[in-house]
Design goal:
Rossmann fold, 2 domains, 365 residues, alpha/beta, 4-stranded parallel β-sheet
Length: 365
């Protein structure tokens, strides 16, 4: 019997009391599989949602609840990972350290399309579960419920890119790698500060209006204030999707795209990027006519989103350089090499660097 965790997101039914009882019973039956922490070896920890959680003195087997948590954990302490939320594709695996490529995939506990089940979680014997992203009550409630059902401490860390230093510090404390956490936090904060400093002189009304196109048709986007579009503001752009009551990701109409007529477009999808200049819907837009359609690199993780995690740091520098080439004249090759060595534990060869950056330019009309 497979029992899935169902977070209380909009449009999703709450877990019934009977289902909760069954889930708890299954967890209790499998508790012998859990890697428990000996009495006296735990300590209190206050997570980013303000929850006080008893955590191991030093966590050694960590399960990431969602993709942003996987990326954060991989960058800081890959030796503590017990698996991936989703198995890396062969193309992605080539940009990961050899020790992590073959780790098992167990599904996700949180966010869209949660797929993990209690048997998988307990069989992997984690001593800690971490989630990175929103710390809203919905996610805090999910963390409390999973923790109660499994007996495994579950903490939330802030996924906002401006909180990167603090998030690294908290995770570094949990896994006992404070010095490395300080190093990554310092470099992350320096990357963010450099972009902010260089664009500060650009008046708001001179900043380009940008549309973020997701999916093969380009009609899914992230509204202003969404974690998925944080990079637009930081890189000195104005998100044309201002919200209007929507939050997070939303689907929009072709007519809305035409009405917005953005100055530039950022996309994740290679097929969309290849065809946008010949598609009758898109080809009349000023961004397409001007050749300002930018495909974000995406190996092993997306540079703009997908997931909205630490991987966006290199994307911030890349996007700012695309929007303001005069302010960011340094070649991306050396910046990319340094980031991948420092954060992803891989030394890129010439072929890998070319693979990453060859499609990262503008689609020409």
């Amino acid at each position: 019997m497979i029992l899935r965790f169902i977070p209380p997101a909009a449009g999703r039914r709450q877990v019934s009391s009977r289902a909760t009882q069954v889930l708890a019973a299954a967890a209790m039956a499998l508790m012998g599989l859990v890697f428990t922490v000996e009495a006296g070896a735990a300590r209190p920890f206050v997570d980013a949602a303000g929850r006080k959680v008893e955590v191991p003195e030093r966590a050694r087997r960590i399960l990431a609840a969602g993709p942003p948590a996987s990326v954060l954990l991989y960058t800081l302490a890959p030796e503590t990972m017990i698996g991936w939320v989703r198995a890396p594709s062969p193309d992605e695996a080539a940009f990961l350290s050899p020790e992590t490529r073959g780790l098992p995939a167990y599904g996700r506990l949180t966010g869209r399309g949660n797929t993990a089940n209690v048997e998988a979680v307990l069989t992997l014997k984690p001593d800690l579960i971490i989630d990175v992203g929103s710390t809203a009550s919905t996610y805090a409630s999910l963390a409390d419920r999973v923790q109660a059902q499994t007996g495994i401490p579950y903490i939330l860390l802030d996924g906002g890119i401006d909180r990167t230093g603090e998030t690294y510090a908290k995770l570094g404390d949990l896994v006992g790698v404070q010095e490395r956490a300080r190093d990554l936090a310092a470099h992350a904060e320096a990357m963010i500060a450099e972009v902010k400093d260089r664009i500060t002189s650009i008046p708001a009304d001179r900043r380009p209006r940008v549309y973020y196109a997701r999916g093969p048709r380009g009609l899914e986007t992230g509204v202003s204030g969404s974690i998925n579009t944080e990079l637009l503001d930081l890189a000195g752009a104005r998100n044309v999707a201002e919200g209007g009551g929507a939050t997070g990701l939303t689907t929009i109409s072709p007519e809305q795209v035409l009405a917005w007529d953005p100055d530039a477009i950022v996309t994740l999808d290679p097929a969309f990027h290849r065809t946008i200049s010949t598609d009758p819907l898109w080809s009349t837009l000023r961004a397409v006519r001007a050749g300002r359609v930018y495909q974000t690199p995406r190996l092993p993780f997306g540079w703009f989103d997908s997931p909205p995690g630490i991987n966006r740091l290199i994307g911030l520098r890349w996007l700012a350089g695309r929007l303001y080439p005069d302010l960011f004249p340094e070649p991306m090759e050396s910046i990319t090499r340094d980031f991948y060595t420092r954060f992803y534990h891989v030394d890129l060869d010439a072929a890998q660097l070319e693979t990453l950056l060859k499609d990262a330019g503008a689609a020409r009309p």
